[in-house]
Amino acid sequence: MEMNASHSAKTPPQNGISSRSCNGGLRTMPFIIANEALEKIASYGLIPNMILYLITVYHFSAADATTILFIWGAISNFMPILGAFLSDSYFGRFLVISIATLTTLLGLVLLWLTAVIEKSRSPKCDIRESGICDNTKPVQMILLFVAFVLMSIGVGGIRPCSMAFGADQFENPENPNNVRIMESFFNWYYASLGVSLMIALTVIVYIQNEFGWVIGFGVPVGLMLLSAVMFFIGSKLYVNVKPNKSLLTGLVQVWVAYWNKRHLPFPPDVDDSAHYYYNYYNDHSKFFVPTQKLRYLNKACMLINPEKEIKADGSPSDTWSLCSVMQVQVLKSLIQLLPIWSTGIMIGVTISQHSFPVLQANTLNRRLAGNFKIPAGSFGIFAILTLTIWVILYDRVIVPLLSKHTNNPRGIKVITRIGIGIFISCMATATAALVERARRAKAIHQGLEETPNAEVDMSALWLLPQHCLTGLGEGLNAIGQIELYYSQFPKSMASISVALFALGMAFANIVGSLIVNIVDVASKSADATKESWVSTNLNKGHYDYYYWILTLLSLANLIYFYFCSRAFKYCDHDIFWDCDNRAAQFTDKEDVMLDIPKSTGDDSSSIYFSA
Fold first, then answer.
1. What pTM does this model have?
2. For 406-439, what is each residue's pLDDT tens digit?
3. Of 546, 538, 539, which is closest to residue 55 (Cα–Cα)?
4. SS3 584
5. Each residue of 7-21: pLDDT tens digit?
6. pLDDT at 571
7. Which of 550 and 288 is assigned the larger pLDDT?
8. Which residue of 24, 264, 474, 601 has the fewest CB atoms within a 10 Å radius of its CB?
9. What is the rounded CA–CA span in Å between residue 555 and residue 510?
10. Buried b (16+ CB within 10 A) or exposed e, 130-153
């Protein structure tokens, strides 16, 4: 079977950019960055105190309110995958961001209206004190849940598209300063996201505490309105890239093509590149064949009748019957990563513990200086600060020192870092259990068992260790996960890394809601007083038991990770995706260091912050 140049597929000129002319460039940067930065302030600023809003205004129990927030988090993490698919395949990034911006704004307005309109919520009653309040009407809950869903849909459109849309404005290979301009954009982009998170967890939370829900929810509405105005003001300046086939479609095509050819025999010489379809990105691509691991998928790129299967321009006649070796190898890498990926679900549960720590902090002495109190919802800032300090310290100090002794350019192997992160997350939940045990004992000693709103004579600064350990574990594990995923795919497909992590966090939120519900129901059944371990009255509950359950599950996950990491290998033929996105080649080298390129736009920690 003779192969010739007709098998090559040329890349469309200018990457499908519909029109560049005088559009794009640095002048578009303020509008795009402002859009996502303001969106993050508006949406992230709602999360910390939302548990208090659901309990005090809607009279949900602590367990039910936490379950609602877990489910909201799951939807918010699922939606970016859908948003990326729709933007890449059908609508383009500008349209998806535009619709998502307006959808987020509508969701925030609805949430604000629940605070403004008295009839949209139940009559005033503190369920923590009375234990029983009037049930919220179905119409009132529908309004609240619709607001949550709209905000999740908006998140799904803005977050996966914003950075890529910004990069589209500067993608001009003919400009000799293109690399420097792109680096400048990424620097400003990530810096703005970091500042946004800080403002959300401090300023917005403080406003809610001091001025109430009406103003506290009204400020995010104003910020999101400004975000929309800024984005649309720059609409005539943007470069719009036409949608093309998405990565998700390409992966599904491999399964369909394999299924169509599942009964066909393999070629006699499986290592002969003449039997497989290769579709490289430029004239410098190399001949290569798929690896033999998960070899059944190789049938998706197996050639049966090249004259009919390949068009004159080198592209397949039917992309659902014939795929390239690149597509097959990407899917193989994805499948082989699934066991390691699944170990991230349990630590995702630990990372997502936003609600109960806020309830704990709300009962403690939060005075920092004079009469100033740290808002209960702002203690999460210590996890983010710890994560940020760790990333800087590891990258600038620890890596240069360790790389001299480990011969690993990243200091510690990425698999090791992921495992250490899981271990530290065990320490975080164990620490939380010990602190809660001490807090509860103090509250009972003070006679506060029946008065949960009273301040316990214990400093809220005792909560810092668990937040700092959570941030450190997140810095090691979560960024390690993205780094591992990123290393197993071409850089042009770096979005898989964020998609996998987001999917893991979505499942983590679902698992987290199940754990809370199981603990709530089981503890009520086992206790003669029918008091839940995760009672709305923290002084009657046993949140320390809940944290010990998380610790045991995290330890079990650590053991599971150990076996997964021992079994995980980078295929029989370790994958090297070249550094300029042009081609891929598969070699027989056994021990490969996972070296992540140190460019500004590709750094895994930066990708993590954008997620």
1. 0.85
2. 777 777 888 999 999 999 999 999 999 999 999 9
3. 538
4. strand
5. 433 344 444 444 445
6. 45
7. 550
8. 264
9. 19
10. eeebeebeeebbebbeebbbbbbb
